[in-house]
Design brief:
Layout: E1 16-20, E2 23-26, E3 35-39, E4 42-45, H1 61-69, E5 74-78, H2 89-97, E6 101-105, H3 107-118, E7 123-128
Parallel strand pairs: 5-6, 5-7
Antiparallel strand pairs: 1-2, 3-4, 3-7
């Protein structure tokens, strides 16, 4: 991948350093996120209003596109602390069509899995820190 969204050569996915209800702290970012998108070399707040995301029907392709564009070859999708956030089938299909591995987990497990992979492969995440 080349272009403005390409990760810097050797870019590592930033680790989540703290998780609590409504709060995610990510290395390289000052302050905290409520919900976040992470990818090799960066992160930003995940604003559901940008794409009209709601708990049902859930995470949509537009929510993961940026993470993939930034070089993630595996994407961890969190369902929230209480598993209330769904993931649309079309999102999983979209990722599969691009050769990106998707894992769907409750938020605590999603953060653990993401952090485990962050130093080893180009992984991204879409994380919801509440319900």
């Amino acid at each position: 991948m080349t272009g403005p969204d390409a990760p810097a050569p050797g870019a590592r996915s930033p680790r989540v350093t703290h998780l609590a209800w409504g709060r995610l702290e990510v290395e390289g970012h000052e302050g905290a996120y409520r919900d976040a998108k992470l990818w090799p070399g960066g992160s930003r707040a995940w604003d559901w209003d940008e794409t009209g995301t709601r708990h049902v029907p859930g995470i949509q392709p537009a929510d993961v596109e940026e993470v993939v564009r930034h070089g993630a070859r595996r994407v961890i999708l969190s369902r929230g602390m209480q598993r209330r956030l769904r993931v649309r089938d079309e999102t999983l299909d979209w990722l599969e069509e691009r050769g990106v591995v998707a894992e769907v987990l409750p938020t605590r497990e999603a953060v653990e899995r993401y952090n485990d992979l962050a130093g080893r492969e180009p992984v991204g995440a879409v994380l919801h820190s509440t319900c």
